[in-house]
């Protein structure tokens, strides 16, 4: 199992910045990617940003140039720096870890943290 603990959500004005943090623990040796997803009311959960073990990154088009994903020195922590926030970024943000077990891939999720961007 992999446990994920998020922090850093809150209320921010449009144009502002915020940083989310996620710390992973447990069987993290086979985690090959970590990232952030978000889900707005009435919408499906969507990928925001992903970073792999070799530090390759992938971003949703809607956040490119505004959000930056990075990993801490201990490699079990992932951050999402969010700049130039827009009201449409309002959502619950979930930390995600992807882990291989043999030929299978498993997703693990944090409890979610609310981001609200006011206009």
Main β-sheet description: 7 strands, mixed
Number of separate strands = 11
Quick one: overall form? globular
What share of the residues does DSSP label as strand, in percent?
A: over 45%
Low-confidence region ranges: none
Q: How confident is the prediction overall: mean pLDDT?
A: 95
- Order of SSEs, N→C? EEEEEEEEEEE
Gyration radius (Cα, Å) is 14 Å
Counted by DSSP, the helix tally is 0
Kindly state the percentage of residues in helix.
under 10%
Question: What are the key terms here?
Answer:
4-stranded antiparallel β-sheet; mainly beta; 7-stranded mixed β-sheet; 119 residues
Describe this structure in words.
The termini are far apart. The mean pLDDT is 95. The protein is globular, with a radius of gyration of 14 Å. 29% of the residues are buried. It is mostly beta strands and 119 residues long. It contains no helices and eleven strands. The strands form two sheets. Strands 2, 4, 5, 6, 9, 10 and 11 form a seven-stranded mixed β-sheet that branches. It has a four-stranded antiparallel β-sheet with strand order 1-3-8-7, with no helix packed on it.
């Amino acid at each position: 199992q992999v446990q994920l603990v998020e922090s850093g959500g809150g209320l921010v004005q449009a144009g502002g910045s915020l940083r989310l943090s996620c710390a992973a623990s447990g069987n993290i040796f086979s985690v090959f990617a970590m990232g952030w997803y978000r889900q707005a009311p009435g919408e499906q959960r969507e990928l925001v940003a992903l970073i792999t073990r070799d530090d390759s990154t992938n971003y949703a088009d809607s956040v490119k140039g505004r959000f930056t994903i990075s990993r801490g020195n201990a490699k079990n922590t992932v951050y999402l720096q969010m700049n130039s926030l827009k009201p449409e970024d309002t959502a619950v943000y979930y930390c995600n870890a992807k882990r291989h077990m043999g030929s299978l891939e498993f997703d693990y999720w944090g409890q979610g943290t609310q981001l609200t961007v006011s206009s």
